[in-house]
Write a structure and sequence with these properties.
Residues 120-220 form the P-type ATPase A domain. The chain has 22 helices and 22 strands. It is of the alpha+beta class. The strands form 4 sheets. The chain has a 7-stranded mixed β-sheet with strand order 10-22-21-20-11-18-19, with helices on both faces. The chain has a 6-stranded antiparallel β-sheet with strand order 2-1-3-9-4-7, with no helix packed on it. A 6-stranded antiparallel β-sheet has the order 12-17-16-15-14-13, sandwiched between helices.
């Protein structure tokens, strides 16, 4: 409970004490007892209703007349004027209790997200040139600087470990509770917590570009992106409130002329009761809270959803389209076969590794890794002088000059387009063809491992209502078909260039189903942006993933897509339940108030009671144990 809530609770207790005293005095007969009870009632009314009254008058000055504060003010002041003091104070007091309970619920919902805000570091331990350590603001640390992280500290900036080893808690980033071991050469990300050991890391990103900063920015702005349901409720409340105000005014003025025996006071009381019932609190608080808690729940399991609009879209997805590498497969490539032509295996790997020196693609990394294993003592410091004229050829490979000789490395299309006489390789895996000066040097076969959970996750998607699972890949048809059979895909489209993926997605979108595209967020940015909802896998440390996608899965776990959809569907169900319940109860009590069977006390339940019940229902959304 924060300080503001403690003050509110104190005012509730104080208002309740004055309210009880006023009721007791009103039951005792002594000189001026009526006046004394009136004064005590007014004191209780001011204590309980001060915030509502001030907000109502402030909003009127700004031209925002029709809101719940205006309705409560008119209703309770009207009750005071006609002498219904206990009802006036009771309405304000119980309204205040309801608002207090709502604030507790909202804070609990916020906590699931604000816990993530703990990943924002307050300082960094900068290692100076004389090896001394100075505590500085993370914003003052530059790329290339070295910082020290002690046990229990948050890693303030992204970097590479240059000294030490430790276990890191990455749960705030990935939702994964199992600590991760890091050693020299490993990448570490800001927001991780050093559980033990002493680390020195070389900073690779400025603080504003760090993983923690990007995640915090994403989460902090999520509430601004409202779903269609939230926008509808906002518009509905804007139209609904003035309608009920004029309806209440008509209820107070017209019936006395039609039923003169009942009198104005009776109908004014009914109109005031009508106003209390009509307050739209349940709509304007409980419905957005349903979506807010959904975003909070998903963040707890490592699924970052950028707003309620994407949460609503995710609940309606019928077709999933997957990238292959890094999504359905682990993205961990290994050289499994080397087929040289007129040269040695070592020489073929050397040429290929030199050609791929500037590439960070997983296939290039696997080739360079294989080269290092064969040439452990190789440490060429003059690579920049040996390499020149690098050209990337979309969908085929690269051309680069190594020692002033032109090397081509890529797929069979690259060989064909350059009229190179080569031997086709039919091995399973990704086939890399290498040529130098238009002479074929051989092939390198690389395999990628299918994720263990892929088949089960895709089956789970079908179980929760997904109609089609499709894969788009630039890999060969043979490899794509094998992966499709292994994981149980419905359709697969292979050998696609980047623009082909977009064209194929356009064809799928023409089916009018809500489409989600799942990729790594780096090579698939155009497709991620074009899909109804883009989902980036393995977002930790990937700027492109966080920027391009609507949903970021902060680890490589495909199961979290299923869990995210379950949260989204539950959010929509809870929001719909709250809407139906709030409208239904209010409709009944509005009718009862209009025909004289409703009292102010029943009106309090129809307003505050319904809101609290809707808020409690919305809070169910924060539970993630069974998701």
């Amino acid at each position: 409970m924060n300080d503001k809530q403690k003050k509110t609770l104190s005012r509730i207790i104080m208002g309740a004490v004055f309210y009880i005293i006023a009721i007791i005095i009103s039951k005792i007969s002594f000189p001026y007892s009526n006046w004394v009870s009136f004064v005590v009632f007014i004191v209780a009314y001011i204590i309980a209703g001060k915030d509502v009254l001030l907000k109502a008058f402030s909003n009127i000055k700004r031209g925002k007349v029709f809101d719940e504060n205006f309705l409560m003010t008119i209703a309770t002041l009207g009750a005071v004027i006609i002498g219904e003091y206990p009802e006036a104070v009771g309405v304000m007091l119980f309204y205040m209790v309801g608002e207090f309970l709502q604030s507790l619920a909202v804070n609990k919902s916020r906590k699931s997200i604000s816990d993530m805000m703990d990943i924002r570091p307050d300082y960094a331990n900068l290692i100076k040139e004389d090896k001394s350590v100075e505590t500085v603001d993370p914003y003052d640390v530059e790329i290339g600087d070295k910082i020290q992280i002690k046990a229990g500290e948050i890693i303030p900036l992204d970097g590479i470990v240059v000294c030490g080893r430790a276990m890191l808690d990455t749960s705030a980033l990935t939702g994964e509770s199992v600590p991760r071991s890091v050693n020299i050469g490993d990448h570490v990300y800001s927001g991780s917590i050093n559980k033990d050991g002493l680390l020195s890391i070389e900073v690779t990103k400025e603080f504003s570009e760090s993983t923690a900063s990007k995640i915090l920015d994403l989460v902090e702005n999520a509430a601004a992106k409202k779903s269609k349901t939230e926008n509808f409720i906002s518009k509905f409340a804007g139209v609904y409130t003035p309608i009920v105000v004029f309806a209440a005014l008509a209820l107070a003025i017209i019936p006395p002329f039609i039923f003169p025996d009942t009198g104005f006071i009776t109908w004014i009381y009914r109109a005031l009761t009508f106003l209390v019932v009509s307050c739209p609190c349940a709509f304007v608080i409980a419905i957005p809270l349903s979506f807010f808690s959904g975003v909070g729940a998903s963040s707890k399991i490592g699924v970052l959803i950028k707003g309620g609009n994407y949460l609503e879209l995710l609940s309606n997805v019928k077709t999933f389209v997957f990238d292959k590498t890094g999504t359905l497969t682990a993205g961990v490539f290994e050289v499994v076969n080397i087929r040289p032509n007129r040269i040695s295996e070592a020489k073929l790997i050397e040429v290929a590794a030199l050609a791929e020196e500037y590439s960070s693609h997983p296939i290039a990394v696997s080739i360079k890794k294989a080269y290092k294993e064969l040439q452990e003592d190789s440490n060429d410091s003059n690579l920049s002088e040996r390499l020149s004229d690098l050209t990337e050829i979309a969908g085929q490979g690269i051309s680069i000059k190594v020692d002033k000789e032109t090397v081509l490395i890529g797929n069979d299309k690259l060989m064909t387009s350059n009229n190179i006489d080569f031997e086709k390789c039919d091995d399973f895996g990704t086939i890399v063809y290498v040529a130098k000066n238009n002479v074929f040097l051989g092939t390198i076969v690389i395999n990628d491992r299918i994720k263990e959970s892929a088949r089960e996750s895709l089956a789970s998607l079908k179980n929760i209502g997904i109609q089609k699972n499709i894969m788009l890949t630039g890999d060969t048809k043979e490899v794509a078909d094998i992966v499709a059979r292994e994981v149980g895909l419905d359709y697969v489209y292979s050998e696609l260039l980047p623009q082909d993926k977009v064209d194929k997605l356009e064809e799928i979108l023409a089916e009018k189903n809500t489409i989600a595209y799942v990729g790594d967020g780096i090579n698939d940015a155009p497709v991620l942006a074009r899909a109804d909802i883009g989902i980036a896998m393995g977002g930790i440390g990937s700027d492109a993933a966080i920027e391009a996608a609507d949903v970021v899965i902060m680890d490589d776990n495909l199961d979290n897509i299923v869990r995210g959809i379950k949260v989204a569907k539950r959010t929509m169900n809870i929001a719909k339940q709250n809407i139906v319940f709030a409208i239904g109860v209010k409709a009944i009590f509005l009718l009862l108030a209009a025909i004289g069977f409703g009292t102010m006390w029943e009106a309090v339940f129809a307003d505050v009671g319904v809101t609290v019940l809707c808020v409690i229902n919305a809070m169910r959304n924060l539970r993630t144990e069974n998701i």
